[in-house]
Write a structure and sequence with these properties.
Elements lengths: L5 E8 L15 E5 L2 E3 L4 H15 L7 E5 L6 E7 L24
Antiparallel strand pairs: 1-2, 1-5, 2-3, 4-5
C-alpha cells in the first residue's frame, strides 16, 4: 500500500499547442494521500503516469521531485513531489505526527 503522500501540480500550460487543455489550469493540484486520489486529472495523464505515481508513493529511490508532461505533445507540465518526511505503516491508520517515519529507517 502507498507509504508517502504525493502532490502533482500544474506548473505550465503551453498555449502555443492548440487546442487549449479542457481539464487543467496552472495551479491545479492532484493529491495522492493514503491510497486516495483527490483533485481532477485527465485520463490520458493518469494512464500514462500511473506507474510512476505508484512508484513514487511507494518509495522509488532517487529524488522527491519530478517533472512530467501530458501525453498530448507535452502541453501540460506537472510537478510531481513526494513528501518523504511523512510515512505511515498501514493505509487504515490515521496520518498523525506520531506516524512520522521512524529514525531507524532513515
Amino acid at each position: 500500500m502507498p507509504r508517502y503522500p504525493v502532490v502533482m501540480e500544474v506548473v505550465q500550460i503551453k498555449e502555443d499547442l492548440p487546442p487549449p487543455c479542457p481539464v487543467h489550469e496552472v495551479g491545479d493540484r492532484i493529491t495522492v494521500d493514503n491510497g486516495c486520489v483527490e483533485g481532477k486529472i485527465c485520463l490520458p495523464v493518469l494512464a500514462q503516469h500511473m506507474a510512476r505515481i505508484y512508484a513514487v508513493t511507494n518509495g522509488l529511490p532517487g529524488t522527491d521531485a519530478y517533472t512530467i508532461a501530458c501525453p498530448d505533445k507535452g502541453k501540460v507540465v506537472f510537478s510531481l513531489r513526494r513528501d518523504s518526511t511523512r510515512w505511515w505503516k498501514t493505509p487504515l491508520s490515521p496520518q498523525t505526527e506520531a506516524e512520522l517515519r521512524p529514525s531507524s529507517l532513515l
